[in-house]
Amino acid sequence: MKRILAAALVLAPVAAMAAGSAHDLVLSHYAVQAKQADSAFAGFSAQRGETLFRTQWAKGDARTPSCTSCHTDNPRDPGRNAKTGRPIDPVAVSANPKRFTDLDQVEKQFGRDCKSVLGRECTPQEKGDYVTFMTGQ
């Protein structure tokens, strides 16, 4: 039992660093895209990410006017899909460390959710701002 506990204590920081690295890779991917789209790009903003998360958009699906429609006002809380009723794990990294670690999955979610909420694709800067906000939550 002591060996298991000792192993867990040794491996926990390694897992946290790996997740941090994965988040950084996702953000780096969006930074390259944002710079290509706008040469004046100067970095991501958690404040803009929070605004994106909380804004009530008018051009998406009426059932999902904002990210909070499914993810609740507190991104650390579990949500529920407004269309299907299916439970959703928290979107905040502090409550769900695996969020934003798999670029393919992140792109799949943004591809679906941006169209539903905003009525269009999210820009690379919006994606990076959103991930930046959620990694700080």
TrEMBL record:
Pfam families: DUF1924. PROSITE patterns: CYTC. Gene3D superfamilies: Cytochrome c-like domain. The keyword RNA-binding does not apply. Residues 1-18 form the signal peptide. Residues 61-93 are annotated as: Disordered. The keyword Transmembrane does not apply. Keywords: Heme, Iron, Metal-binding, Signal. GO terms for molecular function: electron transfer activity; heme binding; metal ion binding. Residues 44-137 form the Cytochrome c domain. This is DUF1924 domain-containing protein. It comes from Magnetospirillum aberrantis SpK.
